[in-house]
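Blinded run. Sample ID left blank on purpose so nobody reads anything into the name before looking at the predicted structure. Input follows.
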Amino acid sequence: MRIVLVGPPGAGKGTQAAFLAGNLSIPHISTGDLFRANISQGTELGKQAKAYMDAGNLVPDEVTIGMAKDRMEQPDAEHGFLLDGFPRNVAQAKALDTMLEAADMKLDAVLDLEVPEDEVVKRIAGRRICRNDSAHVFHVTYSPPKQAGVCDVCGGELYQRDDDSEETVRTRLEVYHTQTEPIIDHYRAQGLVVTISALGKVNEVTDRAMAALRGEHAA
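Blinded prediction complete.
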């Protein structure tokens, strides 16, 4: 299957992408991984991306599209892939349409993870990170530390990252609504969108997604 995963920040896309790709035996292709791989390997596209990033500028669509195209042409993606973070806007979605058409391929589904905005804010703004080890992550509601502000693992101070503040989260949501959400309408016109609730336990959301994808695939 060839799937695009869409959803707002805090919807759990990364977690669900890993589980879904594993269940479907297809590679999980994330924008973050593409950038890191191309930059670390020193590819031409990686050098271009790094130059923009070092200057504090957004990486142009054509660079991101080029990285995605190269990755989708790898042997392990021959029979399918799950795209996470790409396409990020309608221009990228149209470029993907063109790429797939040229390769005589098509998407099977666009999985839209739906989460109420207030829940997104609650999920992200409630995160607390250990200053000693960023791998120690807690949540004031869902996985609180035994002692407020103190890491259960090492006793380090827990803090809220600037990126996780409510103000920043709402700004990220606005960017999602204006730039990324329109791709849902783009793909809905092609009959590809499958929307599921991303509320509940991780395994419940995965089961819901798999059931929806089976239904879409059968259609």
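Unblinding after everyone has recorded impressions. The domain at 2-115+181-218 is CATH 3.40.50.300 (Rossmann fold).
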